[in-house]
Specification:
The structure holds two protein chains of two kinds.
Chain A (H helix, E strand, L loop, with lengths): L1 H42 L4 H16 L2 H11 L9 H26 L3 H9 L4 H31 L11 H12 L2 H33 L1
Helix pairs in contact in A: 1-2, 1-4, 1-6, 1-7, 1-8, 2-4, 3-4, 4-6, 5-6, 6-8, 7-8
Chain B lengths: L1 H35 L14 E7 L15 H12 L3 E7 L1 H9 L5 E3 L2 E2 L9 E2 L4 E2 L2 E5 L6 H5 L4 E4 L5 H8 L3 E4 L2 H10 L4 E5 H7 L7 E4 L9 H4 L3 E3 L1 E2 L4 H16 L2 H8 L20
Parallel strand pairs in B: 1-2, 1-3, 8-9, 8-10
Antiparallel strand pairs in B: 4-12, 5-13, 6-12, 7-10, 7-11
Classes of the chains: A mainly alpha, B alpha/beta.
């Protein structure tokens, strides 16, 4: 019971950290998905240079651990005269991460649209632009939605890495409290619960969407 | 044919037996050496009999894990105690976040790395006698030496867990940025994001040794009444399992002996630190809960 009493005392500080975590996750998802769509189009482009550039951005974004990208943005760029604040650096690094992962999901979604749809739109005389935005995109994105929701959850959890670059997010709040009294187990359990309170309903929504997609497949 | 096989098997068995006996003999000699050793305290309880398992936090010059060959002031102190108690020191890397958890979980006996004794922390574990004072250092390019000098800066950095963090937060507000460790703090100081680097004085002396244009000052020399941790410097000690009185007694006596004979002061001065850091109170100063 004393844990519960302590947790109530810690909650205001934790909630402030949770707010920062949600803000960073929201920004990186909102910016990462459109960028991911652009990257998925670059990766499937006919032009070799565009395709190579797209692939490089996606593979570095997916291949390098998010923490490494965070460090590069925060500690690496000042060496080249570019200095971002910690929250900006975290948003940029996680945006790249979100874009790289979502681009692959979107590419798979777009490529899953039956070829007959393309042929039918050609037969109707639709322009390439209309075919893409009115026929391919809506269908491709529909099947990409569960995967994109998974990336969103991953991004939210990934905000915990921003602690390493002094962002006052949820994990940093937990570390602050823990270093005061050494009750790290108690405070990390509370942090885990805070992450779960957001992530678990999001996972259920993802499962719900997956089931709906399967029903209409 | 069968006899030849038997002979070979016999010879092999003899070799294995001889090797085994040899190894036993080696083990025996070690045991003999250990049995020759008389511990200063009888019946010291440790998580692994005959061993003193130490969690090492990286905070040079006080302790560095150094790929399994730890070095530093705390390491020298604890090694001497282990030797006096006929215990073999074994090390594992630790962080501030997991050290005390590992102690209470029975994975390690104690942790080293300038951990200050506070009332709140004493609820989670016991602390040995104090080893040295934990001074607050200010590194800057402007020559800042006091908290008032820090107030003139646009951004100041320090590390989570230090006892001056709360007081500095009240004074500096959003100007204060906290980091997980000295590594990130210094990286941001080097990047120019912060003008003042507030860290353990001993760490800064080593970090900025030979760096042109950066001064390191011991804030405790000009204490500010608004910051409790510099009006009364916290004392570093080794946290250990709560209730392990036999180990606490051995550590306490070992530390007091090294304080009395000047070993700790020499370790501090050898590391380039002020001998004044060795002047801990006769009674351990436990930082009270605010």
């Amino acid at each position: 019971m004393s844990w519960l009493t302590d947790w109530v005392g810690y909650l205001p500080q934790m909630m402030s950290g949770l707010g920062v975590s949600l803000m960073i996750a929201g920004i990186s998802i909102a910016a990462g998905y459109p960028l991911g769509l652009a990257l998925s189009l670059m990766v499937t482009a006919k032009n070799l240079a565009v395709r190579t550039l797209g692939l490089a951005v996606v593979e570095i974004g997916r291949g390098a651990p998010a923490l490494v990208i965070l460090y590069l943005f925060y500690y690496g760029l000042p060496k080249f005269g570019v200095t971002f604040g910690s929250i900006t650096a975290a948003c940029l690094a996680l945006t790249w991460n979100a874009a790289a992962y979502s681009s692959e999901i979107m590419r798979a979604g777009i490529q899953s649209v039956a070829r007959g749809q393309l042929e039918a739109s050609n037969a109707l005389g639709l322009s390439s632009r209309d075919t893409f935005f009115r026929i391919i995109m809506p269908q491709g994105m529909r099947s990409a939605v569960p995967g994109l929701m998974g990336v969103a959850i991953q991004m939210f959890q990934g905000t915990s890495l921003a602690y390493a670059i002094a962002v006052p997010e949820l994990m940093k709040s937990a570390y602050n409290i823990g270093s005061d009294n050494f009750n790290y187990l108690q405070i990390f359990t509370l942090a885990g619960i805070c992450y779960a309170v957001i992530s678990m309903p999001a996972t259920w929504i993802t499962v719900f969407f997956e089931k709906r997609m399967a029903r209409h497949a | 044919m069968k006899n030849r096989h038997l002979a070979r098997a016999g010879a092999l068995a003899a070799v294995v037996l001889a090797a085994g006996m040899g190894l036993t003999a080696c083990g025996g000699s070690t045991s003999a050496a250990q049995s020759d050793c008389t511990p200063k305290h009888q019946g010291v309880q440790t998580v692994s009999p005959g061993k003193l398992t130490i969690g090492v936090i990286d905070i040079p010059p006080f302790s560095s894990y150094n790929s399994g060959n730890p070095t530093g002031i705390d390491i020298s102190i604890v090694n001497k105690i282990a030797k006096d108690e006929c215990l073999t020191p074994t090390y594992q890397q630790a962080t501030y976040a997991d050290a005390v958890q590992s102690i209470s979980g029975g994975n390690i006996d104690l942790a080293v790395g300038t951990i200050d004794a506070t009332e709140k922390r004493l609820k989670a574990g016991d602390f040995s006698a104090s080893t040295y004072l934990d001074g607050m250092g200010i590194a800057s390019k402007s020559g800042a030496a006091t908290v008032s000098d820090l107030e003139k800066m646009s951004k100041v950095g320090t590390i989570d867990g230090y006892l001056w963090v709360d007081d500095l937060k009240k004074i500096l507000g959003n100007k204060l940025v906290t980091y997980p460790s000295s590594v990130e703090l210094k990286a941001d100081f080097d990047a120019g994001r912060i003008q003042g680097d507030v860290d353990a004085y001993g760490v800064q002396v080593l970090q900025f040794k030979g760096v042109q244009g950066v001064t390191v000052s011991l804030a405790n020399d000009k204490p500010d009444p608004r910051v409790g941790a510099i009006t009364h410097a916290p004392e570093a000690a080794f946290p250990l399992t709560k209730g392990n009185t036999s180990l606490k007694q051995a550590l306490d006596d070992g530390i007091l002996a090294q304080r009395r004979d000047g070993t700790i002061t020499k370790l501090l001065t050898d590391a380039g630190l002020s001998a004044g850091l060795g002047k801990v109170g006769a009674q351990q100063y436990v930082v009270p809960s605010s």
